[in-house]
Amino acid sequence: MALLLTLLLCSGLGFLPRDGAAAGMGRGYVVTVSTASFAASSTCIDDSPGRVAPPRNGTSAVLRLTHRHRPCGPARASALGAPSLLDTLRADQRRAEYIQRRVSRAAAGLQLAGSKSATVPANLGFSIGTLQYVVTVSLGTPAVTQTMEVDTGSDVSWVQCKPCPSPACYNQKDPLFDPTRSSSYSAVPCGAPACSQLGLYSTGCSGGQCSYVVSYGDGSTTTGVYSSDTLTLTGSDALKGFLFGCGHAQQGLFAGVDGLLGLGRQDQSLVSQASSTYGGVFSYCLPPTQNSVGYLTLGGPSSTPGFSTTPLLTASNDLTYYMVMLAGISVGGQQLGIDASVFASGAVVDTGTVVTRLPPTAYSALRSAFRAAMAPYGYPSAPATGILDTCYDFTRYGTVTLPTISITFSGGAAMNLGPSGILTSGCLAFAPTGGDSQASILGNVQQRSFEVRFDGSSVGFMPGSC
């Protein structure tokens, strides 16, 4: 399955060598960027259907993916307005802490994907909030449009369903999905294998129907009837018998969207349910700006040239997350002296976390090197913004010059970050975890402009893909 998101970079951005770069940085290890690109835009850039995704060979389904609160997002999903940066960072911190609690335990071990493990997490019924990107699909017969947030850190998909009187459901712009109007809908019976498969997402039975619950790390919840219906991804791609939660009671931070599409690694996720059709391969490309369009691709060739790959790992105590192993970080072409043991807990590749989290030792080395590289340019510092403690005031500048940052992974894969992966709102877009023993998280800011591809055994990165 592949999820691809395309946002186009403003023409003023680019990797430009600059004479007089900071000491220790050669030509090609700095990037000059227009400060106009930092400003919020109300215009959707190049929203033509033909630019949604590159052509693919083989069986695949491509969905249009957009930022939830930005100009290219569905009006019904973005009409309530975007949260402030501080609110976003607070929610992001809750999500990051929750991920780290699940995968960063002293007894947790990492193994190559596909290795057997008998360990099942005790809190499997929980997931996380702070989601950013949405796709529009259709559910039922006749098909009813649903705008759903996508999340690689969740397994169970769900939509709000009738009956759901306020305040049992939050406000959404679309009508609630009405299962009585779909000829292909059915509730999952209590004795069905799909009900047993829910595990700790199950809340037992009600009236012979299988009940589910998902509780998110920020306190949001959804509960209702585990159900089956036809999920239409595109005009020519439909998944019959798709299992999802028909939510009759929700609370939390979902207002404006119709539900959630889980892209995790467990059996309940869309990735797993569609594996017989699309081969378990999926990819996404998160855009360098928030006013453009992206794509989510399910399926595609078994191998694609142009990707640098790293092995996909599994946390033995949590099977939902896509994990990799960091190997190093460089700033301005200079490798930082971080011992490999600092990264031993692995890194979660996550679409829903905003800024990348690094163990404190690694983050401190990155911050020091970045500040030192920025110092010769004389940019005034700005107050910290929430968890972001390295911020600059660029209001007097038409362009600014940044040192490049590169993240490397086991097996030699590398992400050479563009400007949109280095700064957010004038601040270095990285933050520390709660300790060196905790897992890192590769956030969506750093993933922007890369196609990130998952094939069940590896994760690939291809730059300049959107």
What does this protein structure show overall?
The chain has a single domain (3-462), classed as Acid Proteases (Cathepsin D, subunit A, domain 1), CATH 2.40.70. The model is unreliable at 1-24, 47-51, 76-80 and 115-131 (pLDDT under 50). It contains seven helices and 34 strands. 12% of the residues lie in helices and 35% in strands. The longest helix is centred in the N-terminal third of the chain and has 19 residues, at 85-103. The protein has 466 residues and is mostly beta strands. The chain has a six-stranded mixed barrel. A five-stranded mixed sheet has the order 4-18-19-22-32. It starts with a strand and ends with a strand.
CATH superfamily: Acid Proteases
CATH class: Mainly Beta
- In the sheet with the most strands, the strands line up as 6-7-14-8-13-12
Beta-strand residue percentage: 25-35%
DSSP, total strands: 34
- Which structural category do the helix and sheet elements fall into? mainly beta
Tell me the radius of gyration.
22 Å
Q: What is the CATH topology classification name?
A: Cathepsin D, subunit A, domain 1
Q: pLDDT average, as an integer?
A: 81
- How many helices does DSSP assign? 7
Query: How many domains, as an integer?
Result: 1
Signal peptide: 1-22
GO molecular function: aspartic-type endopeptidase activity
Keywords: Aspartyl protease, Disulfide bond, Hydrolase, Protease, Signal
Pfam families: TAXi_C (PF14541), TAXi_N (PF14543)
How does the SSE layout of this entry go?
Layout lengths: L2 E2 L25 E5 L25 E8 L7 H4 L6 H19 L6 E3 L13 E2 L5 E7 L4 E8 L6 E3 L25 E2 L5 H5 L4 E5 L2 E8 L4 E14 L2 E15 L7 E4 L7 H4 L1 H4 L3 E4 L7 E7 L8 E4 L1 E3 L2 E7 L1 E6 L2 E2 L11 E3 L6 E3 L1 H15 L6 E2 L8 E2 L6 E5 L1 E5 L4 E3 L6 E2 L2 E2 L1 E3 L7 E3 L1 H4 L3 E4 L3 E5 L4
Parallel strand pairs: 5-11, 7-14, 8-13, 22-32, 23-31
Antiparallel strand pairs: 1-16, 2-26, 3-6, 3-16, 4-18, 6-7, 6-12, 8-14, 9-12, 10-11, 11-12, 12-13, 15-16, 15-33, 17-34, 18-19, 19-22, 20-21, 20-27, 24-25, 27-28, 29-30, 33-34
